[in-house]
Amino acid sequence: MTSTSLATPENRTASPATMQALATLNDRLAAKPAAHLRVEKLSIAYSTARGPFHAVDDVSFEVKPGTNLGLVGESGCGKSTVIKALIGLQPEGTKVSGQALLDGQEILGLSERALQDVRWTKISLITQSAMNSLDPVYCIGDQICEAIQAHESVSRATAWARAEEMFALVGLPASRLHDFPHQFSGGMRQRTVIAMALALNAGMLLADEPTTALDPIMQSQIMSRIRGIHEHMRRSMILVTHDIAVVAETCENTVVMYAGKVAEKGPTTDVLARPLHPYTMGLQNAFPRLPVKGQPRQALISIPGIVPNLLRPPPGCRFAGRCPFATERCHIEAPAVTAVGAQSAACHYIDRAPEFREAAARPETWRKLGAGA
Ligand SMILES: Nc1ncnc2c1ncn2[C@@H]1O[C@H](COP(=O)(O)OP(=O)(O)OP(=O)(O)O)[C@@H](O)[C@H]1O
């Protein structure tokens, strides 16, 4: 990446500190390009007292270099489980199968030693809870320096300068590097975690609900900061969120997960404008959309029912029990993934998607569950 490519309209209005931080990033960005991730047939089962819990089943997707992928779905659909497996943080005893190739290197099942070489330098994590990732007894600057020096043989002065650079990128003054975590607000702590995740310039960022713990104003500030950084640094990112609107604004591609499986995936604009899977249609109804002038404000419709228990996953389509269009076949036979252009979905009735979309927009459709397609 060249310095001219960083001079986007947005950063022309950025502060001198941010501009300086962006300029000094150039060499490191060029040395470590954005990563490519290919996940193939990823299955993950937690070991529980009642047997294996199949939290993720046969999940495949790709993150192209320099793009953002949104991983969406209700709570308990397996999004965080995917993220944890990618960075080797699954609990002991968890069974992980399939492949995850980061720039061609298998990152599933690495030894702790091998993981240390990959984590933070090639793939880094922005977690849900910033407070837990910061040590209360060290000042923030020391923590960032320690992370840098654990992976790169640079002097403390260089590491501190890098920490200042990262703070400028996330919009925090360098003087605050001397503070301790308890002196920061929730939003500032979250920015710090983002700065730490960026400090080693990993080609792949995993952001697991990076704003969930914050108030709505702070959420939108942090998300626009993440978008800005993405724009300048062109890292690859997986963004886990419940919020379809955030995905629409931030991610080129989207994977919709339901009960541990991929329900639908493809370019975000296609998935949101022309969803193929009834679950995506239902998920969209549950989120507020921007009002269109002259049209009545759309009512929010939630999907009745709950995600099935994955100790014993249902044999057919996992969404069948909540799908207003499900037939007997859906309850017995698991649907294969079918592609329509760049988009694909696991639904037996993908060819009826236009008709389903119309019906799914009406609240009464979701009231007569199991009525058959
Ligand atoms: N250590 C564990 N042992 C057993 N089951 C687990 C464990 N961790 C998570 N689960 C279960 O796995 C399923 C998927 O959880 P996961 O956290 O991946 O979902 P999610 O889609 O990220 O949800 P959320 O949006 O609430 O974080 C859930 O039913 C959860 O209860």
From TrEMBL:
Domain of life: Bacteria
SUPFAM superfamilies referenced in this protein's UniProt entry, alphabetically: P-loop containing nucleoside triphosphate hydrolases (SSF52540)
GO process terms (BP): peptide transport; transmembrane transport
Membrane topology: Peripheral membrane protein
Cell location: Cell inner membrane
Listed GO MF terms: ATP binding; ATP hydrolysis activity
InterPro entries attached to this UniProt entry: AAA+_ATPase, ABC_Ni/Peptide_Import, ABC_transporter-like_ATP-bd, Oligopep_ABC_C, P-loop_NTPase
One Gene Ontology CC term in the entry: plasma membrane
Matches recorded under CDD domains: ABC_NikE_OppD_transporters (cd03257)
ABC transporter domain segment(s): 37-284
Gene3D superfamilies in the record: P-loop containing nucleotide triphosphate hydrolases
This protein's UniProt keywords: ATP-binding, Cell membrane, Membrane, Nucleotide-binding, Transport
Principal localisation: membrane
UniProt xrefs under Pfam families: ABC_tran, oligo_HPY
Transmembrane regions: none
NCBIfam families, sorted: oligo_HPY
PANTHER family: DIPEPTIDE TRANSPORT ATP-BINDING PROTEIN DPPD, OLIGOPEPTIDE TRANSPORT ATP-BINDING PROTEIN APPD
Family (UniProt): Belongs to the ABC transporter superfamily.
Protein's name according to its UniProt entry: Oligopeptide/dipeptide ABC transporter ATP-binding protein
Organism: Aminobacter aganoensis
Lineage: Bacteria, Pseudomonadati, Pseudomonadota, Alphaproteobacteria, Hyphomicrobiales
